[in-house]
Write a structure and sequence with these properties.
Oligomer: heterodimer
Strand content of chain B: under 5%
Radius of gyration of chain A: 29 Å
Number of strands of chain A: 0
Largest interface: A-B, 127 and 133 residues
Distance between the termini of chain A: 39 Å
Radius of gyration of chain B: 24 Å
Helix content of chain A: over 70%
Number of helices of chain A: 16
Structural class of chain B: mainly alpha
Shape of chain B: globular
Largest sheet of chain A: none
Shape of chain A: extended
């Protein structure tokens, strides 16, 4: 049986005369991709077409190059591997399939992560010890503010989105048009952090007293007879204002996971509680909550990780001014604006060290639920 | 991790949904209308922020700066108060049309490249035997925990040395690298569950592993491919950090999020432009959301662990 299959596979192999053709195709594909990349990055190649047409031609070249190019490379690679003797083909082919992914991951994640750890100790001013960047990180007053803010975010943001998401998931289970109602809560998740920042800057817009308030929050405050508040400048309310924007996004995420979990609670369990005289709220707290504990932990840990890495909302609303800075924003500015690479790498490592324990909790929790992670 | 949590939930849900619908149809006690009112309040509160931006983007500059957007609802059908001028202004004078095209040039390949790499890798991890298989797979999954901030500084230098900063291919590869562990993880979970028989019969019929991959694995894995594709598409489209670091702010190459952030910096009080700009950047994600909500939800949930 096995021999018959081997024989047929051998028979199906392409005849020898295709070797030249396959090699020619391989060379052609590589040359085409190289030329395409040259055109794509050249400033002048498409200028003759005029700004609009040039841009559109560039878009077509770029998209075709990226999408078709990656497939063409695999097809060509495979045809070359099949030119080898049968045994060698079987041995080499898995590496052809895995190799590119492993190479990309090594270049873009493994090597840089190791580099970041090393540089955080080696890139110090002359005459300073290897822990200089970390000592800076924990003594620099501005960074104290960022670390404190991350702690405030960590306490308020996951809890806030979890509570509202949980309440909404519990309530929406009882109304008609459930999926429509959910869509409204879920929608912010598809908006970029930059877009969210614009949306909330508009809500917090401040005008001096006496002028018409075009931000809805200050319009509300003044309508109630209060003084308009500069929400994004006034400390400490500005950090809370940013956290509210984050909760606005993250609640949809919490709601979807928890809603699915609530629907998984056996109906008999809830009926039994009701027959025993438990009210709706009691049933929810005593029966539903314990059953969805695992999902609650999942939502909490994933939100906590997202909070630690929060960048774009802060960058576009305040850029960390008025004491609203957070680690990820500070890291970006140290790296990109001040070219302070040693300090930036130390901040990245601090971020990693903060994230890892949360992930460990998350993985343990998933294991406990009987879901291999 | 989450991928499986989510995959694990639907079967349980399926048999209870029928019971639940029946129960919901039954008249409820006093709590019924309380729930309805609360749901309505939260839904309205969650919509107001986006609605304010949408309405303002269609109002004239004078109106936006002199009165609140909610005042249009005094005469909602007085169409003279709406204008498209803000959109034509941001698309031309503020370079947002170019940024829109740049976002497409970045996002489409940055979605297809990691999916292709990951699908081949996931297939090899699941259905072929080779030395180092379990070690390499463990490394790839372990990389899920690394925040992408850990890569930025060394990559920025590497890109400087090879002149890749500010090129589309540079940003495609960066997004591919950052998305790959998750893509391989999701696709492996799916592809490894495909029935063994189909590969055996394909083998007996003389199909090479490559043919089996393109003819069987790709078509059969389309739910997982679609879920990851939507997640990665939205992630890249909405990303600011990676584009800012590796592509930059030059209008020739800046993507929409970068362009919007620039607009906030340069025209921070021009709300008629900022709201229109924000909406230009949101339109594609909103279309994806409204047309593919099911895959979208699955994709967001599956991708929520991404570093």
């Amino acid at each position: 049986m096995a021999e018959a299959v081997e024989a047929r596979l051998e028979a199906n192999r392409r005849p020898r005369w295709t070797i030249g053709r396959d090699l020619a195709v391989a060379v052609a594909v590589v040359v085409l991709i190289w030329l395409g990349l040259r055109v794509l990055r050249s400033e002048t190649a498409l200028e003759a077409l005029g700004p609009l047409a040039g841009k559109l031609v560039q878009a077509v070249i770029g998209i075709v190059l990226g999408v078709v190019g990656i497939w063409a490379l695999f097809v060509v690679g495979n045809s070359l591997v099949e030119l080898l003797p049968a045994r060698a083909t079987t041995f080499v082919r898995p590496y052809l399939f895995v190799g590119p992914a492993i190479a990309v991951v090594s270049i873009f994640l493994v090597a840089p992560a190791i580099g970041t750890i090393i540089q955080s100790f080696t890139e110090v001013p002359e005459g300073e010890g290897p822990l200089y960047n970390y000592a800076q990180a924990f003594t620099d007053p501005a960074l104290q503010v960022a670390l404190r803010n991350n702690a405030i975010w960590l306490i308020l943001a996951p809890a806030g989105s979890l509570l509202i998401g949980l309440a909404f998931a519990g309530l929406v289970d009882r109304v008609k048009r459930e999926s429509l109602a959910k869509a409204f809560i879920f929608l912010p998740l598809c908006i970029s952090g930059a877009g969210v920042a614009v949306i909330w800057r508009f809500i917090y817009e401040w005008r001096p007293p006496g002028q018409p308030q075009i931000g809805i929050l200050n319009a509300f405050v003044t309508a109630l007879g209060g003084e308009p508040v500069p929400w994004l400048q006034e400390i400490p309310v500005n950090t809370l204002a940013l956290i509210v924007a984050f909760i606005w996004i993250q609640t949809g995420f919490a709601m979807v996971i928890l809603s699915a979990a609530i629907k998984g609670v056996p109906i008999e369990l809830m009926e039994a509680a009701r027959i025993d005289g438990a009210g709706e709220l009691q049933t929810f707290l005593r029966v539903v909550m314990p059953s969805i504990r695992g999902s609650v932990i999942t939502v909490f840990t994933l939100s906590a990780i997202a909070v630690l890495k929060v960048f774009d909302i802060v960058y576009v609303t305040t850029n960390g001014n008025f004491q609203t800075d957070v680690i990820a924003n500070r890291m970006f500015n140290e790296m990109f604006r001040f070219r302070n690479f040693g300090f930036a790498t130390a901040l990245a490592v601090i971020l990693l060290v903060a994230v890892v324990p949360i992930i460990v909790v998350n993985v343990r929790n998933l294991r406990r639920q009987g879901i291999g992670a | 991790m989450t991928a499986e949590t989510v995959e694990g939930i639907p079967p349980k849900t399926a048999d209870t949904t029928a019971v639940r619908t029946a129960r919901a149809a039954r008249p409820r006690q006093s709590s019924g209308w309380v729930a309805k009112v609360l749901v309505l309040i939260i839904a309205v509160a969650w919509t107001i922020p986006t609605a304010g931006v949408l309405v303002s983007s269609f109002r004239a500059e004078v109106d936006v700066s002199s009165s609140g957007w909610w005042t249009v609802f005094a005469h909602p059908f007085d169409f003279t108060q709406y204008t498209l001028a803000n959109y034509s202004r941001v698309l031309t004078a503020e370079d947002m049309f170019e940024a829109f095209v740049n976002s497409l040039i970045v996002t489409i390949p940055a979605t297809v490249i990691p999916i292709t790499l990951a699908a081949f890798a996931a297939y090899a991890f699941a259905w072929t035997r080779f030395r180092g298989r379990s070690f390499l797979f463990a490394v790839v999954v372990g990389l899920l925990v690394i925040p992408l901030q850990m890569s930025l500084v060394p990559l920025l230098r590497l890109y400087g040395n090879y002149d890749l900063t500010g090129t589309f291919v540079g940003v495609w590869l960066a997004h591919a690298g950052f998305g790959l562990p998750l893509a391989i993880y999701i696709l492996y979970n799916y592809i490894s569950q495909l029935p063994k028989d189909i590969f055996e019969s394909a083998h007996i019929d003389g199909a090479t592993p490559f043919t089996a991959f393109t003819r069987l694995v790709i078509p059969l894995s389309y739910p997982a491919l679609a879920a990851f594709a939507i997640f990665q598409f939205l992630w890249v489209w909405n990303d600011l950090l990676v584009s800012l670091v590796f592509l930059g702010t030059n209008p020739d190459i800046a993507v929409l999020t970068v362009s919007l952030a620039q607009l906030v910096g340069s025209r921070g009080a021009a709300w008629h432009l900022l709201t229109a700009g924000a909406f230009v950047s949101m339109i594609i994600p909103l279309i994806v959301f409204l047309t593919m909500q099911r895959f979208f939800v699955r994709g967001i949930l599956a991708g929520s662990v991404k570093g």
